[in-house]
Amino acid sequence: MIRSINDNPIISLGDIPQKELMASRICDLALKIRGSSLESLIFELRNDLKRAGLMYLNPHFYLGDEWFSPEGTQSISIPFWLADERLQSIERSHMRSVEGGTKNWFMKLLRHESGHCFEHGYHFSDTDEWQNLFGDPSQEYSPDHYTQTLDGLSELILKDQNQARYLLN
Q: What is the extent of the structural domain holding 62?
């Protein structure tokens, strides 16, 4: 165990029984993106953005408790358990899967959150063109507004005639 700058213990994941680990605060765990398997995937995203001509989109990444891009920022929260194999194993045993636990799944989620960062930085949803295509983001959204069919592809057919139709993989 090491001490952090503010004198709170930093818990090494290899040194703690699972019961104690599960009772620990996330901020006390010795977790970081640098040096983890996440670092190369973030590097891959940054290269993809540069190749697409989006070099000015340079999100900040941090470990949080879910996939998230806080509104008004160009930041992406990556679930903390993805930074450690042991935590992924625990997540899998409790939830039966690890959201973003494979490279392809992780990259899809990272690109999705990057889209939110792009929106946060440039506010495309404020334009008439966006709202004509996707609807007004200030209106309340409820999953009751669409139906889902499962036929290999999930097809979301929006019931409101002013909304767009999407096909999602």
A: 2-138
Report which residue type is found at 26.
I
Residue type, 100: G
The answer as to whether 148 is a domain residue is no
pTM: 0.74
CA distances from 142 to 69, 145, 146, 156, 160 (A): 20, 6, 8, 13, 12
Count of the separate structural domains present in the chain: 1
- Inside any domain, residue 154: no
Q: Which residues contact 114 (CB under 8 A, 6 or more apart)?
A: 45, 49, 57, 59, 69, 76
Distance (Å, whole) CA 50 – CA 64: 26
- pLDDT by residue for the chain (169 residues), tens only, comes to 344 445 566 888 887 899 998 998 988 999 999 999 999 999 999 999 999 888 788 899 999 999 999 988 899 999 999 999 999 999 999 889 999 999 999 999 999 999 888 888 888 888 888 888 778 888 876 655 555 555 434 444 444 433 443 333 3
Q: Say which residue the tokens 């949080």 belong to.
A: 64
